User: Fold this.
Amino acid sequence: MVTLRLEPMTDEQYERYRARAEEDYARNIADSGAMPLPEAREKSRADYQRLLPDGLATEGHRLWTAYDGADEVGLLWLHVEQKSDGPHAFGYDFEVREDLRRRGYGRAMIQAAEQVCRELGVVSIGLNVFGFNAGARALYEEMGFEVTSVQMRKPLR
Assistant:
């Protein structure tokens, strides 16, 4: 069993995260076939600027670093928004360090996120997963996430 704790992301951790996150997101968009990499890079830059205009201080957004002991094992980014039936969360990023994947950290991080959300009275947690990410999709389904929409495409060349 993995023991994991979430700590608020520091400014230094956030700077490291942002330095690579926009490019990672752009590559995922392009790898999904949604758009070519140059357009994906512009979309990624615009999305991050829109979602986190004040970085860690952006209202409603919470970013944590996940630790196993003193070791950084991943990160979590949640946005909590009030709706008519209560607060809802959206997980913009759940990330486990690549060399530690498939060891239970993703499951533990989701459980930690669920605990935080319960403490905040959150009604539901949503997220997006790229279709090609079969491992993440399987984990999310095992953890009780349900498909709410499916976007499809057919390449013609």
